Amino acid sequence: MAQKRQLPYTQQSQAEKGFVVKIIILGAGQVGKTLAENLVSEDNDITLVDNEEKRLENLQDKHDLRVVTGSASSPHILREAGAPDADLLVAVTSADEVNMIACQIAYTLFNTPTKIARIREREYLREKDKLFNQNVIPIDHIISPENLVTEDIIRLIDYPGALQVAHLADKQISLVVVKAYYGGPLVGYAISALRDHLPYIDCRIVSILRFDKVIRPQGSTVIEAGDEVTFICATQHIKAVMSELQRLEKPYKRIMIVGGGNIGAGVAKQLEEQCSVKLIERNAAKATALAEKLAKTLVFHGDASDQSLLYEEHIENIDVFISLTSDDEANIMSALLAKRLGAKKAMVLIQRMAYINMIQGGTIDIAVSPQQATISALLGHVRKGDIPNVVSLRHGTAEVMEIVVHGDAETSNIIGRKISELKLPTGVIIGALLRGTEVIIAGKNLVIEDEDHVIVYITDKKYVSDVEKIFQPSAFFI
C-alpha cells in the first residue's frame, strides 16, 4: 500500500474535486493576460479581475473565462470573483501593494489555500522572510520578474552561444536551446552520431526548429546549419554538447550594460567580479548612486545612442552589449547601433511579446522577456501535480515540466513501467530524470520509480492537460 504523504494543494484539490481547479488572476496586464491564455484551455475555471473594463472585454471575447471589473484588493470584488471557493489566487497587478493586500484579504476573509504575488520592489524582497508568512502578510509564493530576468541573463553569460538555458531538478539537469552552425562536429550528421562523438556523455535532443517548422528528432534526423536545437542533459555536460553544434565561443569578459534599474544593477553586481563591466545610465543622480553601490563596475552618465560615447568606451572590444532599460524601442535601437559599431553580441530586454519574434536571431542575438520568465515561474505553481519547475519555450507554444512522481504500480499510471509502455501523446517526450542524486537520460527501457523527478518536454502546450492526467496518482493516494 502506498505510503501516505502530504501532497501539494493541486493534487489534494484534484483528488477531491476532479480535474477542475478554480483560479483567480488579479491584473489583466501582459503577465495576467498571458497566464490566463496559458491556463484557460487546460480544464481550469479562470476568473480575471482588472479595473479596465475594455481590456477584460477583449479577453472575454477571445477566451472562455469569467471577468470581473473593479479593484483587485476590494473584498467585494474578490467575493464576486469567487474567492470563497477558489483554489488559487494569483496577484499580478502592476502595484506590489495591491498584490499584497489582495493576498491578505483572500487569506483573512476567504481562507484561499494558495496565494501567489508578483513583487517588484527590492525593499520588500530584501525583507521577504520577515514580511511574507502566515503571521504577517500571508503569501505562499513570491514572483519577482526582475530577479528572474537577472538569473536568465547570468545563465546566458555563463554559457556563451546559448539562446536559452534553464536549470531543473535541483540544477542537476538542464534544458538548453542553441543554434547549430557550420563548424559544429554534429552539423551535417545524424543525431545517432552523437553517441560516437561523445561516448561518455548522455544527452537527449528533444526538438529541432528548422525554418519555423518544428521537427521531432529521431536518430536518423540530420542536423543542419541554422537549426535551433533544444536538448536536455546533465548540467555539467552543457558545454560538451554545445560544442557538437557550434564552435564554442570564448567566455565573455567585456560587458556593457545600458540601464541602471533593478535588472541592470543586478546583472552588473553579479558579473563585476569575473568580468570587466561598464554601465551607462541616463539619469545623473541614479548614475552617481550606482557608482557608489557597484564596487568594480565603471558607471557612465550618458546616452547609449551617443556614438561618440560608445566609440570612447571602445564598443568594438565589447563581447556582449546588454540593453536593459524599460523602453523596448530604445533597447532595440541602441543594440543595433552597438552591433554596427563592432560589439560582438547584443542582448535586449523586451516587454512586448510581438517584438521578440521580429528581432531575435537577426542583428540582435537574444531578446529576453520579463513576461516569459514570470509565466514560467507562475506555471510551476498552478499546474496540477507535484511540479517544482516549468519552462515556457518558443514564446509559450512549447513547455518543459519537471514532475515528481508519487505512488506505486497500483496507484500510478507511470511508476513501474518502461517509458516505451507509456501512452504519451504525440509530441510529448520524457527527456531525463533525477533519481536521488543520479541524472538518467531517458531511454525506451527506463523504468520510472516513486519520487523520480521526471523532465517532460511538450512540443505543443495543448497536451499539458493530458500529461497532468497521465502523471497524476490515483485519488486514493492521499
Automatic annotation (TrEMBL):
<dbReference type="InterPro" id="IPR006037">
    <property type="entry name" value="RCK_C"/>
</dbReference>
<protein>
    <recommendedName>
        <fullName>Trk system potassium uptake protein TrkA</fullName>
    </recommendedName>
</protein>
<feature type="domain" description="RCK C-terminal">
    <location>
        <begin position="388"/>
        <end position="473"/>
    </location>
</feature>
<feature type="domain" description="RCK C-terminal">
    <location>
        <begin position="163"/>
        <end position="247"/>
    </location>
</feature>
<keyword id="KW-0677">Repeat</keyword>
<dbReference type="GO" id="GO:0005886">
    <property type="term" value="C:plasma membrane"/>
</dbReference>
<keyword id="KW-0520">NAD</keyword>
<dbReference type="GO" id="GO:0015079">
    <property type="term" value="F:potassium ion transmembrane transporter activity"/>
</dbReference>
<dbReference type="InterPro" id="IPR036291">
    <property type="entry name" value="NAD(P)-bd_dom_sf"/>
</dbReference>
<keyword id="KW-0630">Potassium</keyword>
<keyword id="KW-0406">Ion transport</keyword>
<dbReference type="InterPro" id="IPR003148">
    <property type="entry name" value="RCK_N"/>
</dbReference>
<dbReference type="InterPro" id="IPR036721">
    <property type="entry name" value="RCK_C_sf"/>
</dbReference>
<dbReference type="InterPro" id="IPR006036">
    <property type="entry name" value="K_uptake_TrkA"/>
</dbReference>
<dbReference type="Pfam" id="PF02080">
    <property type="entry name" value="TrkA_C"/>
</dbReference>
<keyword id="KW-0813">Transport</keyword>
<dbReference type="Pfam" id="PF02254">
    <property type="entry name" value="TrkA_N"/>
</dbReference>
<feature type="domain" description="RCK N-terminal">
    <location>
        <begin position="252"/>
        <end position="368"/>
    </location>
</feature>
<keyword id="KW-0633">Potassium transport</keyword>
<feature type="domain" description="RCK N-terminal">
    <location>
        <begin position="20"/>
        <end position="143"/>
    </location>
</feature>
<dbReference type="InterPro" id="IPR050721">
    <property type="entry name" value="Trk_Ktr_HKT_K-transport"/>
</dbReference>
